[in-house]
Fold these 4 entries.
Entry 1:
Amino acid sequence: MGITKTERFTAEQNELAILAKAIGHPARIAIIEYLLKIDSCICGDIVNELPLAQPTVSQHLKELKNAGLIKGNIEGTSICYCINEEGFNKLKGFFQNINAYLIKKECC
């Protein structure tokens, strides 16, 4: 596998790329939408909402958590997941910058 050259980009650019990659799968979008709808849940509830096997859902949850888009707390034998506002605030700031540019810009 080739060198990614991530060291040639800013920390913010690398962080935004990780966040964007984490939401770049429809199953992860579905998980985020479900968490927004119910505010928190355990992994089993998410598995019941998606047409995926439990190990697959767990892998998607892991990716979202590693990117900082969700948080998980262990409660007994279950993990309760919720949205991590900090991660989404970073995405929000990025898209607000794009939106501000688009509002001002008259492009071809």
Entry 2:
Amino acid sequence: MADQRPPLPPFTEETARAKVQAAEDAWNSRDPERVALAYTEDSEWRNRDTFLKGRDEIREFLRQKWARELDYKLRKELWAFTGNRIAVRFEYESRDADGQWWRSYGNEMWEFDENGLMARRYASINDLKITADERRLAL
């Protein structure tokens, strides 16, 4: 039997919100192994201008991401849902190795398989330099 990741589609507003919160919690763990388990073995990603296929590439991408995006903190918000798809808006803050703080804004489109694993994730992201005093997301 395939791994299941409830809540399962088709989504209601309640289950879509639970799915978004679970994703926020997992990403805030900054644990590539934990996060990768929410995706199908052959999941397709577009993250900015990077295209990934499968859990192994996702894990490596996340390892590199959190090695350079220090003190990462994320907030996600449900935007829309239907059937097996969810759209979210998000923002996260992190600092680079030189101490520069960034706020990144974006939108994601998610598509899930019948077991609640994400089969597709398409993310568009924009970055804004901020000062430490402008941070909104506490660690």
Entry 3:
Amino acid sequence: MATGSNEPKSRYLQYLEIATGSLEEKKRYRQYKARIKQLPENYRIAVEALERYLMHFGPADGAGAMAMYEDLADLFEQSAADATPIRDLFGDDPIEFVETFMANYPLGQYRARERNRFTSAIARAAGDTPPQGRTE
């Protein structure tokens, strides 16, 4: 069922990915989770808490999210290898850490579109811009 990187996907795999999402992204996510599982307990607890936060408030989706999670795994693997204390990694304000971390990744398409739509609507309501026809 798997295809080589140069082979086109079968029609079945194309339909399956439409229904379930990218199989490659699912594979990357499973690899990420396996990496996290190998961390020492205190690092694993911290990264899982950070992951939960990112699932709710993170800026990315799809491939963008996977790049973010893979970078997160790299950061925590390196921190564990260097025996960097958790508090040194996060600092005194974990929210500031995660907000700074998230700022390095693009917004997911849906969230970016909704943020722009919201900002535009408020600007129109405040009289900052002339009313325009609906573009989305």
Entry 4:
Amino acid sequence: MFGDMMNMMGKLKETQKKVEETRKRLNTVLIDEASSDNKLKVTITANREIKGLEIDDTLLEDKEQLEDYLVLTLNKAIEKATKVNEAELAAAAKEGLPNIPGMDMFK
């Protein structure tokens, strides 16, 4: 029984390491999002860090319109990044978890 517990602890540490490696890798996964008319483009990492913005000059003439564009496009980019992030981290966690009864929430 003690050996099983040590083996389980080792697997959990290995899983934790895989999750951390996945988090680091997600910093390099870039997601591009654009407004429907391509006047605003956003680049964000899968860890939801904004890496770039491209704003069409016509949007600079109307502050309120620019703000609306930013809110809508950034929210779409964050939503996509969150889906990628959650899927990748869940896969990394599931891969290394031991088969513990009642802990099938990652399946």
